[in-house]
Q: What sequence folds into this?
C-alpha cells in the first residue's frame, strides 16, 4: 500500500487511534517493547505525526507477517528485533522533524 494512501486513512482517524495491536504476549524473554507515542508532541497533529503513525503501522504489519512466516525461534526473534529497530527509528525521525519545527518532546526526570 502506498504511503499516501495510509496517510489518507490516518487523517480520518482520531489522533490516538492509529496504533494497531501487537502481540506483546508473544514477545520473547529479554525483549522490551519500545514506547510508542499515543499523542503527538506538543499536541501538534501534522504531516510528521501522520508519517510517524504510518511508520508504526507498517512496522506492525511487517511484524505480523514475519511472525506468521517464522519457522523457528531465531526467525521469531529476528522479527521482534527488526520491529524494535523500526519503531525506535520512526520515533527518532519524528522527534528530529518536530525539533526542526521548534517543538520539543517533554521529558520528566526524577532525582534521588
A:
Amino acid at each position: 500500500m502506498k504511503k499516501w494512501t495510509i496517510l489518507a486513512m490516518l487523517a480520518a482517524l482520531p489522533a490516538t487511534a492509529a496504533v494497531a495491536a501487537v502481540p506483546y504476549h508473544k514477545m520473547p524473554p529479554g525483549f522490551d517493547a519500545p514506547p510508542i507515542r499515543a499523542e503527538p508532541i506538543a499536541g501538534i497533529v501534522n504531516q510528521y505525526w501522520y508519517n510517524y503513525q504510518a511508520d508504526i503501522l507498517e512496522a506492525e504489519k511487517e511484524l505480523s507477517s514475519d511472525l506468521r512466516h517464522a519457522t523457528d525461534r531465531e526467525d521469531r526473534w529476528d522479527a521482534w528485533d527488526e520491529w524494535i529497530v523500526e519503531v525506535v527509528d520512526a520515533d527518532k525521525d519524528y522527534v528530529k522533524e518536530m525539533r526542526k519545527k521548534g517543538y520539543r518532546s517533554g521529558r520528566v526526570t526524577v532525582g534521588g
